[in-house]
């Protein structure tokens, strides 16, 4: 489990009580996550980042087989690609990103391997169990910008709005959507897995660049990295 001091980027103008409440809520969520044993087919430990107070919220799919040992999300090959995107497009290196963006996932434990190879997709019950924690995190942070990384995260946030639509139809756009009782802007990104060539080929390469430009120019991103 990742640990670290929270970066108080929540809002420099916020009243101290608001900041304290958000931090207390996140710390409690993380304590409850660490104690969770709801899903017998998941492989622990639970993985989460520190309680970063930010209005930029990144949602991935689930930890891979290495993140539990390292103790933080996106800590292996896909993470290297993801953080390279932000460093090249916005000049933000990995550690600064981790300090200023709240990172979460649809599922917080490694789901294990699928029979056909690759990581198993979390099932509906596992997703629902972790959604209780996500709802509390969203309530604490009330994000202004959500970065949905990969199809599972995209579907969980946007639901029927993206049902049946290909990545090429939704990457490179900013969408306004309700998520867990909160209205937010959503920018979707392809999964940075080396198993998928989508972001390396056209139109994915161009659409990814457009999406990263939208992220860099979004007011919540500017607030977080100013």
What's the layout of helices and strands?
Blueprint: H1 16-34, E1 56-60, H2 67-70, H3 77-90, H4 94-100, E2 102-105, H5 124-141, E3 145-149, H6 151-158, E4 174-179, E5 182-189, H7 204-217, H8 219-225
With strands numbered from the N-terminus, the spatial order across the biggest sheet is 2-1-3-5-4
Shape: globular
How far apart, in Å, are the first and last alpha carbons? 28 Å
Average pLDDT, to the nearest integer?
93
Helix content: 40-55%
Structural class comes to alpha/beta
Number-wise, the strands total: 5
Estimated radius of gyration: 16 Å
The assembly state of the depicted protein chains is single chain
Secondary-structure element string: HEHHHEHEHEEHH
Biggest β-sheet, characterized? 5 strands, mixed
Number of helices: 8
Strand content: 5-15%
**Low-pLDDT segments, ≥5 res:** 1-5
């Amino acid at each position: 489990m990742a640990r670290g001091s929270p970066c108080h980027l929540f809002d420099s103008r916020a009243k101290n009580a608001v900041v304290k409440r958000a931090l207390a809520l996140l710390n409690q969520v993380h304590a409850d996550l660490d104690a969770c044993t709801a899903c017998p087919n998941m492989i622990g430990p639970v993985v989460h980042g520190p309680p970063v107070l930010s209005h930029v919220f990144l949602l991935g799919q689930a930890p891979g087989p290495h993140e539990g040992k390292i103790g933080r999300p996106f800590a292996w090959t896909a993470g290297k690609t993801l953080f390279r995107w932000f460093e090249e497009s916005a000049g933000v290196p990995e550690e600064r990103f981790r300090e200023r963006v709240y990172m979460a996932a649809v599922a917080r434990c490694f789901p294990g391997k699928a029979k056909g190879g690759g990581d198993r997709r979390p099932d509906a019950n596992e997703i629902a169990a972790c959604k209780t924690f996500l709802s509390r995190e969203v309530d604490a942070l009330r994000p202004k910008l959500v970065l949905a990384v990969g199809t599972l995260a995209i579907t969980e946030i946007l639901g029927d709005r993206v049902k049946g639509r290909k990545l090429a139809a939704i990457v490179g756009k900013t969408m306004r959507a309700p998520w867990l009782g909160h209205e937010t802007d959503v920018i979707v990104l392809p999964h940075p897995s080396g198993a998928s060539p989508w972001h390396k080929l056209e139109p994915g390469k161009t659409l990814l660049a457009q999406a990263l430009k939208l992220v860099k120019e979004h007011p919540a991103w500017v607030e977080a990295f100013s």
